[in-house]
Amino acid sequence: MSVPDELLAHTPTSSVCKVCGSAAALYGVTDFNKSCGENGGHYFPLSGIPVYYHQCGHCGLVFTNAFDRWSPAQYVQHIYNDDYVLVDPDYVDARPRSYADFVQQFVRKAHNPALLDYGGGNGKLAALLAEQGFNAHSWDPIADSGCALPALASFDLVTAFEVIEHTPEPLATTRQALSFLQDDGVMLFSTLTIDHLPPTRRITGTSHRAMATSRFTPAARLKSCSAHSVTASITSTTSRIWP
Prior knowledge:
By secondary structure, the protein is of the alpha/beta class. The chain contains 6 helices and 11 strands. Helix 3 packs across helix 4 (124-131).
């Protein structure tokens, strides 16, 4: 397997947090081929390519800089390719279907809301909602990188389920997602959080073949919202933010 030369470059022992800008020390390392598919018994052979992570000393964000300079085409070639379904089989149908039920309940009292699933991948969630009569659309920074952006400030609800932890620029990604909201719109997003970090130098819970570039603590998630001057309502699984 070939990968861009950036992954083979020297990793500095310190960095700057991608959420709050505080100092972040080198935290751990894992193999490029580690994936969440291991939970289901599917293991890729070790690539021998290390991916290093830093941890913010202030908000606790764990992140890597390894993919900061990747292009959308590189993500498609090395991550979101034909093997992606092996590490994330729920991506195809099961997860979008469960979120479709959730979104329908969330907007059940709204009158014909315009919905955008940001980071929608294969567009399945929006398609399922459209089948139920919703004005639903999908746009993904990777899958739709060659397509026109949706109209800015034109949606009542923007969803971003399990998106923010997969981007090398969490603040810029959040800012772009928010730009599609109308003034009184709501953004609904989810990302896994880590409440307690082990004092380890060997990362076992981060997947690269499923492209997790960050792991948020609750504090880091709040910081990412406050950086955009929005109001956040956060539960253990999902978050709502109002511009």
